[in-house]
Specification:
2-enoyl-CoA Hydratase, Chain A, domain 1; 266 residues; ClpP/crotonase-like_dom_sf; Mitochondrial_ECH-domain; alpha/beta; 48% helix; 6-stranded mixed sheet; lipid metabolism; Lyase 2-enoyl-coa Hydratase, Chain  A, domain 2
Length: 266
């Protein structure tokens, strides 16, 4: 796998791709360069048959500090006061977050340190998240006169409305333990077992049929905003097509015959 200075890529033999934010000096901010790297990395992971699961991790004391405010402030020097540049960055960021959701491979955030503003959005956009018990989360835009409107999109789709609004309206820091309680992350674990815990989960998922995982992930996000009857109609049609797939035949046969399945990922 190719690796840049600010985003490391490591693919192991079991098909687990670790993407590691590595712009430590800027607290792994979502700069224009980082957004471009992440967007390309998730597009490539989705298309690479060797990749079965993606783990998004970070080096340094911060998981991700959100947008690079110095970079964005520099954009104000344009004749339009930065409007076009801000629109570009917001579009790039939205593209990355949707790219994570639309990636056919499950994505697990492995969170150490702080994840603030768009960094919190990044965690919320992942399918699963495991956090160090020393990690923390916040959407602190209200402290600087900038409501975290784009982080709100991912946050409000992962935690109950009142929990999301409390984070957004106060900007207060949320501990990893509390983040697990409200559903922002799956588990908060001791720092010394964070990577092992994340990789154990990733290996468990990677052992499944990638066709089945892609089918399920796509259906999960598609049905959420449908009415109950539409969701059942849609999910039923997905189930029918899934039942006709080769791996479903193999998996059911293996279960009946009390043996391990041999996935063809088809």
């Amino acid at each position: 796998m190719t690796t840049s200075d600010i985003l490391q890529r490591d693919l192991d033999a079991s098909g687990i791709l670790r993407l590691t934010l590595n712009d430590v000096g800027r607290r792994n901010a979502l700069s224009e360069a980082m957004l471009a790297e992440l967007g390309a990395a998730f597009d490539a992971a989705g298309a690479d048959q060797a990749v079965r699961v993606v783990v998004l991790a970070a080096n340094g004391p911060a998981f991700c500090a959100g947008h690079d405010l110095k970079e964005m402030t520099a954009g104000r020097s344009a004749d339009d006061g930065g409007k076009a540049y801000f629109a570009k960055i917001m579009s790039m960021c939205a593209g990355v977050m949707q790219g994570i959701v639309n990636c056919p491979k499950p994505v697990i955030a492995e969170v150490t340190g702080v994840a603030t503003a768009a960094g919190c959005q990044l965690v919320a956009s992942c399918d699963l998240a495991i956090a160090s018990d020393s990690a923390s989360f916040s959407t602190p835009g209200v402290h600087i006169g900038l409501f975290c409107s784009t982080p709100m999109v991912a946050l409000s789709r992962n935690v109950a409305n009142k929990h999301a609004m409390e984070m957004l309206l106060t900007g207060d820091i949320t501990s990893a333990t509390r983040a697990a309680e409200i559903g922002l992350v799956n588990h908060a674990v001791a720092s010394d077992v964070l990577q092992d815990t994340t990789m154990e989960l990733a290996r468990k998922i990677a052992s499944k049929s990638s066709m089945t995982l892609a089918t399920g992930k796509r259906a999960f996000y598609a049905q959420r905003d449908m009415s109950l009857s539409d969701a059942y109609d849609y999910a039923s049609s997905v189930m029918v097509e899934n039942m006709l797939a080769q791996d479903a035949r193999e998996g059911i046969s293996a279960f009946i015959e009390k043996r391990s399945p041999h996935w063809q990922d088809a």
